[in-house]
Design goal:
mainly alpha, single chain, 99 residues
């Protein structure tokens, strides 16, 4: 082999190495860009789930308060049952004495 052939072969190998390295770096950049997009999408999903959890917690608190309010109303109605009925003669006499 002559010297020119060796130089051309070395130059070809160097060019192939530079091309391969360039391709590898570009591939890595594309991978990083894809992973960044996936991470951003996952973060948006997490934020949406956190907001949904806050809304659900507020709704549960509201429903609990509402349930307690209606239970108190039902309890009050049970204790007032018969309050609109006319008083017996004895009850009327006690009320008249108290007045």
């Amino acid at each position: 082999m002559n010297r020119l052939t060796l130089i051309l072969a070395a130059l070809g190998l160097a060019l192939a190495a530079v091309g391969g390295g360039t391709w590898w770096v570009m591939s890595l950049r594309q991978d990083v860009a894809q992973l960044t997009r996936e991470r951003d999408a996952a973060l948006r999903t997490i934020e949406a789930h956190e907001e949904a959890a806050r809304v659900l917690d507020a709704h549960i608190k509201f429903q609990t308060a509402e349930r307690q309010r209606w239970e108190q109303i039902a309890k009050d109605l049970e204790t007032m049952e018969g309050a609109d009925e006319p008083l017996s003669d004895y009850g009327r006499a006690v009320l008249d004495r108290v007045r």
